[in-house]
Specification:
heterotrimer; A mainly alpha (about 90); B mainly alpha (about 500); C mainly alpha (about 625); A: about 90 residues; mainly alpha; about 0% strand; flat; C: about 625 residues; 3 domains; two-stranded antiparallel sheet; 3 strands; about 75% helix
């Protein structure tokens, strides 16, 4: 239940929220750095299949673009075409 | 091997003697019913006694009466006849039990007339099943129509007479106009009317004559309900439900399709049918009937009417099977005689049970009756699933053979027709089951009747729970169980079918 | 391995039949014990063909084809059933449990079927029993959805059956192994399989019916129909190329709809389509790693998808609401539900140390290995989408967003009953266990496993994607706020189309039929009536005269016969039986009574006499 308490703290307290966001930011940076490090040949343990496995931090960028695309495209098709009022079939 | 024996005759005599006994005992209800039951049981046992021998390829032969050279009234119990006879005799026994429940609960009049006509009907049915030639078949076919008239018009009100007259008109009309002429032509062309494996026509007969003869015979068999000569079947719904059960599952329609199969297998023969393309023509007629009847069934609100059109559709399955002229197809058609009989009779028993216990005849009134009539509706569901063709219920097994038969004889369209009609069948049976079990009952008083009243009393003193109608409910459970068993273990009828196809 | 074969499916169905007849404590024992028993049978059984029976008119129906592929799916069914049973223990009515057990049993049956007829048999049983789980939910909407579900599955079954007929007709046998990838028969079979796998455009039934099923039923629905469809696809169509683009399309399709969706269970239902897409694409790729990936992802899905479903079902049960617009702020009020749900959410998204990480990535890796960049890319993109919709959007709007107003509902809202929490807890535990120790899962896979998920590159890559997905989510939060709407899917065709069909049969067909049945009335009865009018006049003159005359004669005759009766016959009737010692009553009965019966008796008597004489003298 400490998770709940922690979440409550973050949500209710703007200062705590800021700290959490900062924490995420540091984590993100750490990830990209780690990515660069493991690209040094002897630490690289996975086959390179495609170009982008090479680029450090690519996954982060890809995650960013993917999510953006998914949201925008879905909502557009939805609004243009798919979404109907709730009693459409009745 | 042909065995000369009295047994086919005895099979016919037993119900006739039973009729006399019924009449003798008309004052005492129970003794009278006992006569029916004993006769039915005895007849069934006699029929079954012939099974082992027929399963080895023998037939039981008996000449009744010869009046012209080559023309006689003769009985010959072969595999095809035995399938029909076994099913009919088993179902007579069960229907008698059901009749007892129905007629007494409904306090029907003229019960003696009912039971005695019933018994004679069965005698005539056995006559048809064991006919060795076309004229014997014709004789018993006609007598069957006549003796069922009092049964159809039983309630004797205006609607009953109207329906029964239509019944008589269609059946006698088609048989006199077409069947008789066809029979005469056959005799003229072939010189004989005796059924033979592979057909009775000599080679070299004019094709046109043969084709005309075929269609005369085919349309002459009104009892097979091929469109457009099917209207007698829904008209006969005015009869009390056990009579409907008799008509639809035991005797009358089975006589029809049985006779058609006889024509295909033992008057014309598979090879002749093929060379004249009669198989394709018949298949087309049957397919049309299947689809139209199913479509129309979807619009009927009266339960028995819907079941009647379902029967019209299912009968054409049997004819379709025969018309496919392939081994699997013919097998499918033949075993469907048995499978349809047991499944359909379950459905009719259920309709009668619903009527007696809740007085409801229309599907739109049947919301929530599954609560009140669990056993009835459960059996109904099994019968319906069989009609739709869901494994492992027996209707599926027939469909399996029919569809494979369609592919064997390169008639892919027939397979599509079969699958389409499956979907249509689901379209008119599933709503009934759905309404019965999943919709709240309209009349809450009725639904909770068994809780409040200790004596299960409704109005008119009619009992409104299944427990007080065991004679109604037990038969439908028995036939439902058989409908499933025949699907899982169809071997008996499959083996008989093998001998028919040869 | 013991050579013992009791079909677990058969056990399940037997248990279902026995359920209403046993005492409550036994019921619980059966419900929980039977899946465990089934699991152990599978652990102990030896590979090979078991359970060959000649039924339904066939020479052999194979009920027990056991190999690694069928076993792993069998384990899935058993585990899914167990978790579902725990989750639904609180349901008092037997019928839901019976339906679930039959459903599970038929799923087992499909998995171990060795021939096409057996597959079809259980396919149909699955359709009907799962439909029941929708029908048992209260409300008209549920029942209508249930009917649509049933009809669509019957249609799918017919496609399958048609294909089977064509294929069997050609090959002569009903064996079920890899099927040819061309030809009308196999293609129809494929179509039937695809329908159950919810591949668009044959997928609309899933988001239509699943949200309408019972609270606990949806856990079973999730586990069986689609996963057994994946199994039969693997068995029959592994390596069929068209499945790859279909699968990838499915993945994105499901995600797209999930982003738009407002109903919490419908969102997850669309997401099922998305996850199954991974499996379908893997089947299409067909390599050993791909097949392994499909199987392991199916397994993992049972766990985390089931967990997500359980979470949302619990929310629905406790609050009575199912739309995102009506929920929010529940993280404090239903904490356990929230936490278990989140385990499912991160598991499905592929967080390291949880089940999705070791299964989904195997599929992507298989794509990479086969040098299929588009597939790998799109599937990776979908990982973002998965996290977005089930790991972020759904929990955010259900558990956070706005504060929960306790006055919205009459009862107190808390975590659901203990058994439901246990169910979720079990699933959550399993998700974690499989993530941390993928070994046992990998050992059960059909092929020797060549995949190693825990590499630095992989772990870091996963965290990157997930983190950035979350970032974008919070950035575009407002855009994602739920809008009350429904999204139109391919079921539009039949939901609107049925009206037209019914019109067709009501008007023209009925008119035709009435014409046929009444033509005899117009064409014949009327003229005959006219004829009989003429006859009537003849009648009154000629026949009446005759009748009157004969009437006199009859009267005379009856007087005579009465005398005869009374004196002679009665005398005999009374006398003879007295002589013989019997009662006169019975004989008397024979001679009194209505004319009908007399005539009847005479006719029958003559016929009988005729036959008897034939027997004796003929």
């Amino acid at each position: 239940m400490w998770i709940i308490k922690y979440l409550e703290k973050i949500i209710e307290n703007p200062a705590e929220m800021k700290k959490a966001k900062k924490g995420c930011l540091y984590f993100g940076i750490a990830l990209v750095v780690a990515d660069m490090i493991i690209h040094i040949p002897q630490l690289h343990l996975v086959h390179i299949y495609f170009l982008w496995d090479w680029i450090p931090g690519f996954s982060a960028l890809y995650g960013f673009i993917s999510t953006y695309l998914i949201i925008i495209v879905s909502k557009s098709i939805g609004h243009a075409w798919l979404m109907k009022p709730e009693d459409y079939y009745d | 091997m042909v065995i000369e024996s009295h047994r086919p005759l005895i099979v016919m005599l037993i119900p006739l003697i039973g009729t006399v006994l019924i009449l003798l005992n008309r004052e005492d209800e129970n003794k009278r019913e006992a006569c029916s039951l004993i006769a039915a049981g005895a007849m069934f046992l006699t029929v079954v006694s012939m099974l082992p021998s027929v399963l080895e390829g023998n037939t039981f032969h008996y000449t009744l009466f010869t009046f012209l050279e080559e023309v006689s009234f003769t009985l010959n119990a072969d595999a095809l006849g035995m399938i029909f006879a076994t099913v009919a005799s088993a179902l007579w026994l069960i229907t008698t039990v059901y009749s007892i429940g129905y007629m007494r609960a409904h306090k029907e009049h003229n019960q003696t007339r009912y039971y005695s006509c019933f018994a004679v009907t069965l005698a005539m049915t056995m006559g048809v099943a064991f006919s060795a030639n076309l004229v014997t078949l014709y004789l018993f076919y006609e007598m069957l129509t006549l003796i069922t008239y009092p049964l159809v018009s039983h309630t004797q009100d205006e609607a009953a007479y109207a329906g029964a007259n239509k019944y008589l008109f269609y059946l006698l009309g088609t048989s006199k106009a077409f069947l008789l002429s066809g029979m005469l032509m056959t005799y003229a062309v072939a010189g004989t009317l005796d059924f033979q494996h592979g057909g009775l026509f000599p080679s070299g007969v004019n094709s046109t004559v043969l084709v005309i003869t075929y269609f005369l015979l085919l349309f002459g068999i009104g009892k097979a309900a091929i469109m457009p000569f099917h209207a007698w079947l829904p008209a006969a719904m005015v009869a009390p439900t056990p009579v409907s059960a008799l008509l639809h599952a035991v005797a009358v329609v089975n006589t029809g399709v049985f006779s058609v199969l006889r024509i295909i297998f033992h008057v014309f023969g598979v090879d002749l049918m093929q060379s004249l393309h009669l198989g394709t023509a018949t298949a087309a007629l049957a397919s049309f009937t299947i689809i139209m009847a199913s479509l129309f069934a979807m619009t009927r609100d009266n339960l028995k009417a819907r079941l009647a059109y379902s029967t019209v559709s299912q009968l054409s399955y049997i004819i379709l099977g025969g018309a496919l002229l392939s081994v699997s197809g013919m097998t499918g058609g033949i075993i469907h005689i048995a499978n349809h009989a047991f499944s359909k009779i379950t459905l009719f028993y259920a309709a009668g049970s619903i009527y007696i216990i809740t007085h409801k005849t229309d599907i739109s009134q049947m919301n929530g009756i599954g609560r009140q009539l669990p056993w009835t509706m459960a059996a109904f569901s099994i019968g319906a699933l069989s009609m739709i063709g869901v494994p492992p219920v027996s209707g599926f097994t027939s469909k399996w053979y029919l569809a494979l038969g369609a592919i064997e004889s390169q008639h892919i369209t027939v397979m599509i027709i079969l699958l389409t009609s499956t979907l249509l069948n689901a379209g008119y049976f599933l709503p009934i089951i759905y309404k019965a079990f999943f919709k709240p009952p309209d009349d809450l008083a009725h639904a909770h009747g068994t809780e409040g009243d200790k004596d299960g009393g409704g109005h008119d003193g009619h009992e409104i729970s299944e427990a007080s109608h065991k004679f109604l409910v037990a038969p439908l459970c028995v036939t439902a169980v058989f409908a499933v068993l025949l699907g899982i273990f169809p071997n008996l009828f499959l083996n008989l079918a093998k001998w028919v196809i040869g | 391995m013991i050579d013992l074969w009791i079909h677990p499916g058969f056990l399940f169905i037997l248990a279902a039949a026995a359920l209403p007849f046993v005492k409550p404590t036994w019921k619980v024992a059966i419900k929980l014990g039977v899946p465990v028993l089934g699991f152990f049978v599978l652990v102990l059984v030896s590979h090979g063909i078991h359970g060959v029976l000649p039924l339904l008119g066939q020479q052999e129906m194979i009920f027990g084809r056991v190999d690694k592929l069928s076993l792993i799916f069998g384990y899935m069914v058993a585990i899914g059933t167990f978790i579902g049973m725990v989750f639904s223990l609180h349901v008092k009515e037997d019928k839901e449990h019976m339906a679930a057990l039959v459903y599970a049993g038929s799923a087992m049956g499909t998995v171990f079927a060795g021939d096409l007829l057996t597959v079809f048999l259980f396919w149909e049983i699955m359709a009907f029993s799962s439909a029941l789980l929708v029908f048992y939910a209260p409300g008209q909407q549920a029942r209508e959805a249930g009917m649509r579900y049933l009809y669509i599955h019957i249609l799918g079954g017919l496609l399958l059956l048609g294909g089977i007929f064509l294929y069997v007709g050609e090959t002569g046998g009903i064996a079920f192994n890899a099927l040819p990838q061309a030809g009308l028969g196999p293609m129809l079979i494929l179509a039937g399989f695809l329908l159950n796998a919810a591949v668009p455009p044959l997928s609309a039934w899933l988001p239509d019916a699943y949200p309408e099923s019972t609270i606990t039923g949806i856990v079973f629905m999730n586990a069986f129909t689609t996963k057994t469809a994946v199994y039969v696809l693997l068995r029959g169509f592994a390596g069929t190329e068209i499945l790859v683009p279909l699968g990838v399309f499915m993945v994105l399709y499901g995600l797209g709809y999930a982003v738009l969706e407002v109903d919490i269970r419908r969102l997850l239902a669309y997401h099922i389509i998305s996850q199954v897409g991974y499996m379908v694409a893997a089947v299409g790729m067909g390599s050993e790693m791909a097949v392994n990936g499909a199987a392991s992802h199916a397994f993992a899905n049972i766990l985390f998808k089931g967990l997500l479903m359980m979470g949302m079902s619990s929310v629905m049960l406790m609050t009575g609401f199912r739309k995102l617009t009506e929920l929010g702020g529940l993280y404090k009020i239903m904490p356990w539900t929230f936490m278990f749900y989140m385990v499912g959410g991160i598991a499905i998204s592929g967080f390291p140390l949880f089940a999705g990480f070791v299964s989904k990535s195997m599929v992507i890796s298989a794509a990479s290995e086969l040098h299929r960049p588009w597939v790998a890319m799109l599937l990776t993109l979908a990982s973002s989408g998965t996290f977005l919709s089930t790991g972020l959007k759904l929990p955010y709007y259900v558990f956070f967003w706005k504060d929960w107003d306790p006055n919205k509902v009459k009862h107190k809202v808390t975590d659901p009953p203990k058994n439901m929490l246990w169910g979720m807890g079990l699933a959550a535990f399993a998700c974690t266990f499989v993530g941390v120790f993928p070994g046992p899962l990998y050992n059960a896979l059909p092929f020797e496993n060549a995949y190693h998920p825990y590499t630095w590159s992989h772990v870091i890559g996963a965290y990157q994607i997930l983190l950035l997905t979350a970032v974008v989510f919070f950035m575009l939060l407002k855009k994602l706020d739920p809008e009350e709407s429904i999204s139109v899917d391919t079921d539009w065709t039949y939901r609107r189309g049925i009206a037209g069909f019914l019109w067709f049969i009501r008007k023209p067909v009925v008119r035709y039929e009435n014409f046929i049945t009444e033509v005899y009335k117009k064409g014949l009865i009327e003229p005959v009536k006219k004829l009989s009018q003429i006859g009537w006049t003849v009648d009154t003159w000629v026949f009446d005269g005759l009748v009157n005359a004969s009437g006199w004669a009859t009267l005379l005759e009856s007087k005579v016969s009465e005398m005869f009766d009374v004196h002679i016959v009665d005398g005999t009737v009374n006398g003879v039986p007295v002589l013989l010692g019997g009662s006169a009553k019975r004989l008397r009965k024979i001679q009194t009574g209505s004319i009908q019966n007399y005539i009847m008796a005479m006719v029958v008597g003559v016929v009988v006499l005729g036959f008897v004489s034939l027997v004796l003298f003929g």
